[in-house]
Design goal:
α1 (11-25) runs antiparallel to α2, α3 packs antiparallel against α11 and α5 (85-95) runs parallel beside α9. The strands form 2 sheets. Strands 2-1-5-6-7 form a 5-stranded parallel beta sheet, sandwiched between helices. Helices cover 53% and strands 11% of the residues. The radius of gyration is 18 Å and the shape is globular. The chain is built from 11 helices and 7 strands. It has one domain (53-238): Phosphopantoate/pantothenate synthetase (Rossmann fold), CATH 3.40.50. The structure holds adenosine-5'-triphosphate (ATP) and magnesium ion.
């Protein structure tokens, strides 16, 4: 692949694109995944490609909730596996959480390829290719979930989720932690905790927060989780976008 000069102003963004394209060439990412990434990039551009305080607060609350959970599961798709394979594995080990492949554009071959890709990097016992049951009321392919994975989980981490399934998981009384750059998406609105940040920054931050909170007493974790308000956090992220755009347009004084 062609060289990306390190002093290029969009170096980080271009390196992320490279990973997605490599995932596409390896048959892990579907063409629709490239488009979904583009939608995320557009919002990240507005956010200045940086993690903002509300996202960090959501990350901390998510870490507390995941540590309080009895049966947390990490749901992965092609994009997430291509972008943050090491962090998926690190988090699953820190939380003793199973990893499950769950795809909107599902084929048995792609499930197998993603599973093998993560296993090559050190993941173990990945779910998603056998003993599947259906999420009630969901028509997309995402309805196929592992009985001992997402189906019986109390909390599901869903980086880059589809809104339909996030709503159904919540209807099944599960806690949903979403990582989604779009604070307006149905996923963000439906989730118990939405981390509005790029998955490439949010996943390492989440690993760090879990490491830090792991040693805290349950009462402290409960306090952190209960103090968090998702609606309020999303409102702050939307306001932040609004203020950033206003400042860039030179309208700041007028609002
Ligand atoms: P929803 O179904 O929740 O209403 P949507 O239909 O707009 O959302 P999907 O195509 O289902 O979106 O999923 C893509 C989502 O993932 C988008 O909201 C996009 O902003 C987000 N996204 C894409 N790439 C990233 C990334 N690298 N990090 C975080 N979020 C991302
Ligand atoms: Mg969608």
């Amino acid at each position: 692949m062609e060289e990306i000069p390190q002093d290029h102003p969009r170096y980080v963004s271009l390196m992320i694109r490279r990973k997605i394209v490599e995932g596409f060439e390896a048959g892990i990412v579907v063409p629709q995944g490239l488009l979904a990434h583009g939608r995320g990039e557009a919002i990240d551009y507005i956010l200045g490609e940086t993690t903002h305080p509300p996202a960090l607060e959501a990350t901390r609350a998510a870490a507390a909730l995941l540590l309080l959970s009895k049966h947390p599961v990490i749901s992965v798709n092609g994009n997430t596996s291509s972008l943050v394979p090491h962090e998926i594995i690190r988090l699953s080990k820190l939380l003793k959480a199973r990893i499950e492949v769950n795809l909107f554009h599902r084929t048995p071959e792609r499930v197998k390829r993603i599973k093998e890709f993560l296993e090559k990097m050190g993941a173990e016992d990945i779910l998603g290719d056998s003993d599947l049951v259906e999420i009630p009321g969901l028509s997309s392919q995402r309805r196929f979930v592992a009985r001992e994975g997402i189906y019986s989980a109390d909390t599901v981490l869903v980086p880059l989720e589809d809104g339909d399934r996030a709503e159904k998981l919540v209807a099944m009384k599960k806690n949903v932690v979403a990582i989604d750059l779009n604070p307006l998406s149905r996923t963000s609105k439906a989730a118990t905790i939405s981390i509005v940040d790029n998955v490439v920054r949010a996943m390492p931050n989440l690993c760090r927060a879990v490491e830090e909170l792991k040693v805290k007493p349950t009462s402290e974790l409960e306090r952190i989780y209960h103090l968090f308000n998702n609606e309020e956090n999303l409102r702050r992220m939307i306001e932040l976008i609004f203020r950033r755009l206003s400042r860039l347009a030179g309208l700041e004084e007028q609002i």
